[in-house]
Amino acid sequence: MDLLKKQILAEGRALAGGIIRVDSFLNHQVDPVLIDAIAEEFCRRFTGIECDRILTVEASGIAPAVMTALKLKVPAVFAKKSRPSTSSGKVYTAKVHSFTKQKDYDITVSADFIRQGERVIIIDDFLAHGSASTGLIDIIHHAGAEVTAIGIVIEKGFQDGGRILREKGYRVESLAIIENIEGNTIQFR
Amino acid sequence: MDLLKKQILAEGRALAGGIIRVDSFLNHQVDPVLIDAIAEEFCRRFTGIECDRILTVEASGIAPAVMTALKLKVPAVFAKKSRPSTSSGKVYTAKVHSFTKQKDYDITVSADFIRQGERVIIIDDFLAHGSASTGLIDIIHHAGAEVTAIGIVIEKGFQDGGRILREKGYRVESLAIIENIEGNTIQFR
At what angle do helices B62-72 and A32-45 cross, to 10 degrees? Predict the structure, then answer.
């Protein structure tokens, strides 16, 4: 997706440890026009794929997930990183490891918002080692629902999450795949 | 805003302690068509108000903030509840008390994303005691910027945040104001 790649090259910063800083348009400040274009591109790639709900994780996944959900006319659900105090009833949880923050955390989704037999598309801002996506997949399977596609804004192609998920048979659509980072230079696949 | 009030009455649940559970359409699952209508209504109410950026807090503020930002063609910034590991450089922070979760936390915004002299609209999902809004106002003022309006999806009119902010001269536009809760019955102002 050219518009996204241009913005990554113009504003993204490669930091130590394979971290890519895109906080000027994706995960701190959000460029809504870009996110709208991202959602449009997800819809194009998901043509013909069944979708009852979109699932993401708070917080940076919310903008692309909700914009895509608006175009697909389905609800968007965001998994919470702490069990919500206003929730009661059954929840699904999964453990996720953040390599960026070097810690484990639980993600939680109310059982009210993923039902048996549903077709769910996962959307997230980043795919690196695949820990968040794997947690979301676990939750969807706990609920007896099906993952029909995974939409990623930026995949770190130099880490193994995308390869592992594709080898497991998931359809992963990444709008920009960063092949490697040489010094401060970001190169796309 | 009738559509919102209808959905609150149909799906909202009044819990002990003045908590209103709206996780089926606003803060866990998101109804994107409703959020789009909310954004449209914010734009209508903000006609003629100057806006360089929209500021909200992760996570539940993001959907209405980004949808409104898309219509106003300005960036949306979400304050983070933990200092982001990919951030460097100057940040503004403010302390916020969550009465629902009974704890204090810091919110952080990079100085790159609020600049001196800018006109900023705050958008959030809830206004209760006004602690989150006050934290965002503090951050905007630290940056030398101006708060031109505050847009709230649901105001708890039985708590004092809205009154305090309006008495201080802020223009607060709340799309639904809950006057009181009698038993399980939600009554609007």
Answer: 100
